[in-house]
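Quick one: structure for this chain?
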Amino acid sequence: MIDPWLWLGFAILLAFTIETITGFGSIVIALALGALMLPIPQLLPVLVPLSVIMSGYLTWQNRHHIDWHRLSRLILPLMLTGTITGYLLMPWLGDSGLEILLGCLIVWFAAKELRRMFGGHDARPHGIKTSRGIIFIAGVTQGLFASGGPLLVYALAGIRLDKSRIRATLVTVWLTLNVTLTVLFLLDGRLIANADKIAWYLPMLVIGVMVGDFLHHRLDEELFRRAVYGVLLVTGILLVLRAIL
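Got it. Here's what it folds into:
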């Protein structure tokens, strides 16, 4: 048997390597793989502070491209409210409920992206009320799994922003929400209890970024993304089946 925390170290290394190559997914990938062997509530106080380091660096690097108007008027108020709601809901769902919800979210996200990549479907814009509702639900999934990205990107479908502005705005969202979650974990005692694990896994983040940066221009990114989504799809199905069975 593989030690669960050793497995998580591998998941973190892989997740941050993939994020450096593709620009997405460190928490989603690390959480999906880690949840195969450890309960989600044990993973989040380790993964979220590590993500703060990554998103803080990216936010500073891209600070001149942030869409502050859209961030402050539309995204952050709803995402913050949803995040706190998700955090409060977590104890009520239990480990199995969290696994099923996370698995379903991952399966939906991976299947949607694979369909888009193979079928060439363009994102359709939503009405403002629909967008607001989805953004709030994205906040709830952020509070539950620190993985609000898939739903937030879906909520913003069709909004005309150049790639630099949307990327800078999104990493600022993750920085703000993950700092919020880190403070909540500090207050409930889970951050201090996992401080040693965070310190041990920090080199995995650094190595992942270095490996990802090396591979970024040496891989076919489209093919690599398809492989990642395929792995996520299978992982999501396994999480749901394990929780049900």
